[in-house]
């Protein structure tokens, strides 16, 4: 298996990895996750397989974002959209810089909820995004009702900026700067992180 990024998380005592979404391999699994009751309220992509498949094909064609499957010890259990703010719907929500990046995520499997996976996974993905030398800020715009996810973002190093209106939700705009992220997590063994670019 070729992963774009992988690391060993000391807290979880498990390996976290991310690989790019492949339509033929992942469409059925992602459709299943989008129809899980804990995902539906925040992603609103539930429904027939054919409709979701068209959405996924379009998402994969967008050059400003990269879709990932997040794994723990090689088990697929989460979905990620890492995107450049420039070219995204959130671009005009604040004075964005050319290399600002953003992140969307979900835990797909019910059995993986409530196990403390979200924060280690988010830390790993944001660390991967900050490997871009010119990126000084990663943003998030979770649904303002999603208090659990907002709390996870805050623990990772994001701070709330302001509510914003997006086409599909009222979101809370959040920022994580590279300086704050490295200050907060500087004790991590960076040598264990391996990027496969």
UniProtKB/TrEMBL annotation:
Residue span(s) of domain N-acetyltransferase: 16-179
Pfam family, one: Acetyltransf_8
Domain of life assignment: Bacteria
Keywords, sorted A to Z: Antibiotic resistance, Transferase
PROSITE patterns, per database record: GNAT
Lipoprotein as UniProt keyword: no
InterPro entries in the cross-refs: Acyl_CoA_acyltransferase (IPR016181), Acyltransferase_MbtK/IucB-like (IPR019432), GNAT_dom (IPR000182)
Gene Ontology molecular function: any one: N-acyltransferase activity
GO biological-process terms attached to the record: response to antibiotic; siderophore biosynthetic process
Pathway connected to this protein: Siderophore biosynthesis
The keyword Electron transport is annotated on this UniProt entry: no
Gene3D superfamilies: 3.40.630.30
Function summary: Acyltransferase required for the direct transfer of medium- to long-chain fatty acyl moieties from a carrier protein (MbtL) on to the epsilon-amino group of lysine residue in the mycobactin core.
PANTHER family: LYSINE N-ACYLTRANSFERASE C17G9.06C-RELATED (PTHR31438:SF1)
Protein name per UniProt: Lysine N-acyltransferase MbtK
Native organism: Fictibacillus enclensis
Biological classification of the source: Bacteria, Bacillati, Bacillota, Bacilli, Bacillales
């Amino acid at each position: 298996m070729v992963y774009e990024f992988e690391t060993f998380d000391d807290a979880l005592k498990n390996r976290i990895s991310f690989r790019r979404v492949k339509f033929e391999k992942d469409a059925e699994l992602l459709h299943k996750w989008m129809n899980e009751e804990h995902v539906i309220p925040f992603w609103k992509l539930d429904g027939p397989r054919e409709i979701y498949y068209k959405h996924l094909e379009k998402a994969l064609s967008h050059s400003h974002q990269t879709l990932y499957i997040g794994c723990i010890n090689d088990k697929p259990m989460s979905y990620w959209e890492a995107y450049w703010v420039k070219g995204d719907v959130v671009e005009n929500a604040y004075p964005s810089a050319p290399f600002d990046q953003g992140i969307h995520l979900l835990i797909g499997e019910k059995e993986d909820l409530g196990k403390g996976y979200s924060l280690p996974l988010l830390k790993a993905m944001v660390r991967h995004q900050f490997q871009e030398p010119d990126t000084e800020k990663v943003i998030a715009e979770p649904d303002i009702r999603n208090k659990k996810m907002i709390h996870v973002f805050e623990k990772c190093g994001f701070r709330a900026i302001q509510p914003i209106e997006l086409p599909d939700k009222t979101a809370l705009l959040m920022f994580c700067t590279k300086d704050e992220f490295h200050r907060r997590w500087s004790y991590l063994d960076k040598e264990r992180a391996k990027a496969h670019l």
